[in-house]
Specification:
The complex is a heterodimer.
Chain A: E1 18-19, H1 22-31, H2 42-47, H3 61-72, E2 84-93, E3 102-115, E4 118-129, E5 134-144
Antiparallel strand pairs in A: 1-3, 2-5, 3-4, 4-5
Chain B: E1 17-21, H1 23-33, H2 43-48, H3 58-73, E2 79-86, E3 99-110, E4 115-124, E5 127-138
Antiparallel strand pairs in B: 1-3, 2-5, 3-4, 4-5
Classes of the chains: A alpha+beta, B alpha+beta.
Chain lengths: 148, 140
């Protein structure tokens, strides 16, 4: 069944606070095979002009995956997750994510489309500090194959 | 050392980056990212859903690809926008060699505001695995 165009603009309640830790950033950088000291060494990060270690440009996926699940699990969206593949991903950084950040993720349905029998669902997740400073906006496009 | 705006122009090529992704890397990335999707570690399930085998997380490929940009710039904090389209899965064989990923980049746009767009070409085994892979960096 094709996704309902009326879902566009639907927003979900903000997530619980996620506290970004130095060890988590280092673990993520190691998983990418990236030895850059700016991800691990606070002194190196400060020398590069950051207040603490920063996260790799794709780190926000850790938060947006979780926040995006509220959309996928919304029965009114009704997407068949067993047929879903990740189609596109975008990160718009207002500033780097860094250790010590206390972030809140808010998910919104940005677009739904049906093309060639596939449903496409674009979810935007806005990451901001608990004080409301915008940090990163992620957009994930999921493709449900053969459901439209 | 951070790259300066004066050092780049449209057409500037980034150093080519070649890396390998093994099954162990997929396990490590699954743990670090929290993406435990079975198709990234279980051959049986991957084949059952019509894949040629265990495939790399798209976001692992994307994360490795953008390293070519952050290394070139010298400060990962300079990346203000990064987008990718996952056009073909990277099949990771069950051996110690894994899959090869080759990343090439070229400056496509230099804005007066110091924003530089780099278009990436990411291939595995000669096939393009990401399309519309673009990073925008803010340079001083």
């Amino acid at each position: 069944m094709a996704l309902d165009a009326g879902l566009v603009g639907r927003s979900y309640p903000p997530s619980a606070v996620y506290e970004v830790g130095r060890e988590k950033i280092a673990e993520f950088a190691t998983a990418l095979g990236d030895p850059d000291p700016v991800y691990r060494d606070p002194a190196a990060a400060r020398a590069a002009g950051h207040p603490d270690v920063i996260a790799p440009p794709t780190f926000a996926i850790v938060l947006s995956l979780g926040a995006g699940n509220v959309v996928v699990e919304d029965p009114e969206v009704g997407i068949d997750y067993s047929r879903v593949v990740h189609g596109e991903q975008r990160f718009t950084h207002h500033r780097p994510v860094r250790a010590g950040d206390r972030l809140v993720a808010t998910a919104t349905i940005d677009a739904v489309r049906s093309v060639a029998g596939n449903d496409m669902l674009t979810t935007r997740v806005d990451l901001a500090t608990e004080d409301g400073e915008p940090v990163c906006t992620t957009r994930s496009m999921l493709v449900a194959r053969g459901t439209a | 050392m951070t790259l300066r705006l004066a050092d780049v122009e449209v057409g500037t090529e980034l150093p080519e980056q070649v890396s390998r992704v093994t099954r162990a890397d997929l396990v490590r990335y699954a743990g670090a990212s929290g993406d435990l999707n079975v198709i990234h570690w279980n051959e049986r399930v991957a084949r059952e859903v019509g894949l040629p085998g265990v495939i790399a997380h798209g976001m692992l490929t994307a994360g490795i690809a953008v390293r070519a940009v952050t290394r070139w710039v010298g400060d990962p904090g300079a990346v203000v926008d990064y987008q990718v389209r996952f056009s073909r899965p990277v099949v990771v064989p069950d051996d110690d060699t894994g899959a090869e990923l080759t990343v090439r980049g070229r400056v496509a746009q230099v804005g007066e505001d110091g924003r530089v767009r780099v278009d990436l070409t990411v291939t595995s085994g000669g096939e393009k695995v990401l399309s519309l892979a673009r990073a925008v960096v803010a340079l001083g």
